[in-house]
Amino acid sequence: MIVRLLPDAEADLEAIGDYIARDNPNRARSFVAELREKCESLAAMPQAFPLVPCYKRRGLRYRAHGNYLIFYRATGEPIARIDVVHVIHGARNYAAILF
To answer: What keywords are assigned to this protein (predicted)?
Structure first.
């Protein structure tokens, strides 16, 4: 199964890395790698994580890693691809960012 990080998700990861790198460049690299690995592992069980209540009709789901939320949707019947839409810190107002 293909896991694709959409441009907004790639930009999110870059911003997360830049923010963490201000204090700890090594941890920034390793943490962004962890987030990427969590995104890739969605292929194993794409429906294992909950739907976002206000975006159920869009099929948007989320997975937590540390303080961050990985927002994604599985597409196709049967599921053929996973699109990672955004990676956002859990304290942020995700509804204002997602769509």
So the answer is: Toxin-antitoxin system
User: Cα–Cα distances in Å, from 78 out to 5, 66, 73, 75, 81?
Assistant: 20, 30, 13, 8, 9
CATH 3.40.920.10 fits 2-96, yes or no: no
Beta-strand relationship, 2-5 and 81-89: parallel
**Is 2:39 a contact under the CB 8 Å cutoff?**
no
60 by DSSP, 3-state: which?
strand
What is the Cα gyration radius of the chain? 13
> Is pLDDT of 6 > 80?
yes
What is the widest separation between alpha-carbon atoms in the chain?
A: 44
